[in-house]
Amino acid sequence: MPAAEDSSEQRWQALPLRDELRGQHPYGAPQLSVPVMLNVNETTYPMPQEVVEAVTAGVRKAAAGLNRYPDREFTSLREKLAGFLGHGLSAENIWAANGSNEIMQHILQAFAGPGRSVLAFPPTYSMYPLYARGTYSQYIAGIRGEDFVQTPENVADQIREHRPQVVILCSPNNPTGTAVGLDVVEAAYEAGDDSATMIVVDEAYGEFRQAETPSALELLPGRPRLIVSRTMSKAFALAGGRLGYLAAAPEVADALRLVRLPYHLSALTQATAEAALDHASALMANVERIKAQRDRIVTELQQMGLTPAPSDANFVFFGGLDDAHAAWRHLLDDGILVREIGIDGHLRVTAGTQGETTAFLESLRRYLS
Ligand SMILES: *Cc1c(COP(=O)(O)O)cnc(C)c1O
């Protein structure tokens, strides 16, 4: 029996865990509850009422059939996702899962694994090393240039050096907010020719990109090792619905069928995602509002003498703070939660509604004065 004073952590650490899990902690930003939550890049607008009604009707219909397993091929959902993406894609180009987190896990289960490696470029999404760990793959932390910029030459050289089985380019990148040019994706793909490397572009924030920034979807024709990953968690305001997806050559989706668990997408998830897709235009109207607040944050932070990075996402990464933790604390005392990302003098803030953005900017201005 464990001594009464043993913490729960001491108790689970005493279990026969895999060696690489020993001493690790579960991933997750603190889920504090404050009036203005700008820390995990959710859409902060409430779900439009027409979407609430459509989801409810779809789920009600699906509920009547819950005695049966769902459509394992989620064909109707894949058709709608292809229609939303355009670019001449059809259902056979699409794969979906419970969040793009599960999409990435499927990709690494199929293409990485023991004795194989995954290359990504920090600072980037902190889940990438955890997907690698969970699939027994080696994680290689690549290197970025000055101001975290990635150039075609730099990325290609690192792929030729490491010959990884999978490369993840996060574009727009979390936490820096900036997208890479298509020249970087093309160079990565070519550099991976020799090693037959799968190139994954994580476009979780793709819908928020600036008008002049293209999507890597444009590069899919003729590139069977290219995968573009998307999610409904951000632009579709569906973080709670858990629906991620990818577009790629049909054979990529076929390969992923080898590793998915049976019926991994519940009938309720499929119905929810389909209803949201049927109302994409109402949801994309909020995306435009969020983009306006995002651009406003960049402009006003510059006026405050801070150094925001150009953003193609629904958040802004900014530096120039003497003490990022003190600024974070001041904002929290004002009821505003932003994200500390462990980079000196920097914070990341999600673009919220106009009111939330004003509250953030005014609080930060008070802190600086
Ligand atoms: C938020 C985010 C995701 C989304 O994950 P889901 O599992 O789809 O909610 C994926 N990639 C990046 C870089 C993100 O920031």
UniProtKB/TrEMBL annotation:
<keyword id="KW-0368">Histidine biosynthesis</keyword>
<dbReference type="InterPro" id="IPR015422">
    <property type="entry name" value="PyrdxlP-dep_Trfase_small"/>
</dbReference>
<dbReference type="InterPro" id="IPR005861">
    <property type="entry name" value="HisP_aminotrans"/>
</dbReference>
<feature type="domain" description="Aminotransferase class I/classII large">
    <location>
        <begin position="37"/>
        <end position="364"/>
    </location>
</feature>
<protein>
    <recommendedName>
        <fullName>Histidinol-phosphate aminotransferase</fullName>
        <ecNumber>2.6.1.9</ecNumber>
    </recommendedName>
</protein>
<dbReference type="InterPro" id="IPR015424">
    <property type="entry name" value="PyrdxlP-dep_Trfase"/>
</dbReference>
<dbReference type="InterPro" id="IPR015421">
    <property type="entry name" value="PyrdxlP-dep_Trfase_major"/>
</dbReference>
<feature type="modified residue" description="N6-(pyridoxal phosphate)lysine">
    <location>
        <position position="234"/>
    </location>
</feature>
<dbReference type="Pfam" id="PF00155">
    <property type="entry name" value="Aminotran_1_2"/>
</dbReference>
<comment type="similarity">
    <text>Belongs to the class-II pyridoxal-phosphate-dependent aminotransferase family. Histidinol-phosphate aminotransferase subfamily.</text>
</comment>
<dbReference type="GO" id="GO:0004400">
    <property type="term" value="F:histidinol-phosphate transaminase activity"/>
</dbReference>
<keyword id="KW-0663">Pyridoxal phosphate</keyword>
<comment type="pathway">
    <text>Amino-acid biosynthesis; L-histidine biosynthesis; L-histidine from 5-phospho-alpha-D-ribose 1-diphosphate: step 7/9.</text>
</comment>
<keyword id="KW-0028">Amino-acid biosynthesis</keyword>
<keyword id="KW-0032">Aminotransferase</keyword>
<keyword id="KW-0808">Transferase</keyword>
<dbReference type="InterPro" id="IPR004839">
    <property type="entry name" value="Aminotransferase_I/II_large"/>
</dbReference>
<comment type="subunit">
    <text>Homodimer.</text>
</comment>
<dbReference type="InterPro" id="IPR001917">
    <property type="entry name" value="Aminotrans_II_pyridoxalP_BS"/>
</dbReference>
